[in-house]
């Protein structure tokens, strides 16, 4: 079973994936993050003076897709998570469950201003990150999918139960 988790930068995709794994200890789950499949920055376009990480072309999609397929053979559940989780058709079509981490603009900006992993980003670049997500982030996403309001307390127990129920219904089918 493959689960896709998408959403904007700082929406909590990786946190949700780790929480699901922690809650479903009786199921063999692996988490694959698109961030681990980003092309070398020297090969990427620039947006003003910054490397433009906000384009689907930054992902080594063939490598990521193959990693998901290999992981599916070795694990009960694969969580494929990233900014462009719903952009690539070949990946999107693999998902048994799609989870979209919805984050409003105000909360996104607040979180992103505090995110100093790569240094403090200028406002114009944070605006670019937001605009890029609006353009590419939802990609092919259409119902049915699980909408998680990322700016609010997340019901991880409910989400984990839904995944567990889906997993056990698929394994019995």
Q: Can you describe this structure?
A:
- Helix content is 41%, strand content 17%.
- By secondary structure, the protein is an alpha/beta fold.
- The protein has a single domain, classed as Rossmann fold (3-Layer(aba) Sandwich), CATH 3.40.50.300.
- The protein has a five-stranded parallel β-sheet, with helices on both faces.
- Helix 1 (13-23) packs across helix 6 and helix 4 packs across helix 5.
- The longest helix has 17 residues, at 156-172.
- It starts with a strand and ends with a helix.
Give the biggest beta sheet.
5 strands, parallel
What's the SSE pattern? EHEEEHEHEHHEH
Structural class: alpha/beta
Q: How many structural domains can be distinguished in the coordinates?
A: 1
> For the record, what CATH class applies?
Alpha Beta
Query: Helical residue percent?
Result: 40-55%
Radius of gyration (CA) equals 16 Å
Number of strands: 7
Distance between the termini: 12 Å
Strand content: 15-25%
- Assigned CATH architecture: 3-Layer(aba) Sandwich
What would the CATH topology be? Rossmann fold
CATH superfamily: P-loop containing nucleotide triphosphate hydrolases
| H/I helix tally | 6
For the largest sheet, list the strands in their spatial order: 2-5-1-6-7
Estimate the global geometry from the Cα principal axes.
globular
Mean pLDDT: 94
Low-pLDDT runs: none
């Amino acid at each position: 079973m493959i689960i896709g988790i998408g959403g904007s930068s700082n929406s909590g995709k990786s946190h949700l994936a780790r929480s699901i794994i922690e809650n479903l200890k009786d199921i063999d789950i692996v988490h694959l993050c698109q961030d681990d499949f980003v092309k070398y920055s020297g090969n990427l376009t620039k947006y003003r003076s910054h490397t433009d990480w906000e384009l689907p072309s930054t992902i080594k999609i063939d490598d990521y897709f193959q990693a998901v397929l290999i992981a599916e053979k070795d694990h009960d559940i694969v969580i494929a998570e990233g900014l462009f989780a719903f952009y690539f058709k070949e990946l999107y079509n693999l998902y048994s469950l799609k989870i979209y981490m919805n984050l409003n603009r105000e909360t996104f900006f607040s979180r992103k201003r505090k995110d100093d992993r790569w240094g403090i980003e200028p406002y114009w670049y944070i605006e670019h990150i937001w605009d890029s997500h609006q353009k590419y982030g939802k990609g092919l996403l259409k119902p049915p999918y699980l909408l998680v309001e990322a700016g609010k307390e997340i019901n991880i127990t409910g989400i984990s139960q839904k995944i567990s129920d889906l997993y056990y219904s698929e394994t019995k089918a």
